[in-house]
Amino acid sequence: MLITCPYCGPRDVIEFTYQGDGNRQRPQPASQNLDAWNAYVYDRLNPAGDHNEIWQHSGGCRAHLRVVRNTLTHEISSTAFARGDHNSVARHRAEDKP
Amino acid sequence: MVERQSPLEPVLHPGSHGNFEHGVEIILSETRPGSILQLAAWPGEEKTLMAGIHAVTGLALPDGAGGGVTDGVRSVFGFAPGKFTVVDEAEGLASTFASVVTSAIGTVTDLSHGRTAIRIAGPKAEWVLAKFFAIDFALPAFPIGAGRSTMHHDVFAQIQRTGADQFDIYVFRSFARSFWKALCHASEEVGFEVQ
User: What is the pTM for the complete model shown?
Assistant: First the structure.
């Protein structure tokens, strides 16, 4: 399986580390919304098909990547830097329901 | 300055080795640069950092991922977004950069004692390295000056092409001896010389 790193180009999957489901929305640390925390920790879509994932190019440029991988075929249909995703604090706070 | 000891000392045996009856096709050496630095720019400060590198070293970094340049004495290449490795034969480059790369621009990390620089040269250099790393070493894909970060099993390596058939490999000091031995084994079948 090859993952095309936006910085390094196509590399073998052995250089990458899986960092989990990319669909999770982490509640604000002070949030006491138990449903939101439960969803963040336990709920997974487990799709048979395209899946949003976070990977790190740990054996290369060490960037964190947003990857769409097909769980049936392992085809990688898109890769992008994850950087910036967590900088949008305003968006995050707006979605948070304490 | 403290005199630096090479981790390769017990295993670096100058001379020709392996199957060299038909000629030496690989030359291995340790370059022992005085300074190896890692510079990182905060997001949005990449151009300022590149300008600072140019001001200090005189080397103009090309744009683009993995871009780099070398003049034989100093070398610089990008190895990650906004991050650069700068190498100088002379010691003391970190203190020069400390005043140029301010805390508003990014960070300077002195790795001079933490990395070992190994040079592999010769007509079979691409061929031997291709046994180690799953990246394209052909000249059009990996131009002179360019840098790549990759790994051989768990040995993280930064590689800069410093000539048409010459590569400088920066590995963790603690892995350097075993990596060097592996390089020697891989070079045996084409004949190699240690300098």
Answer: 0.90
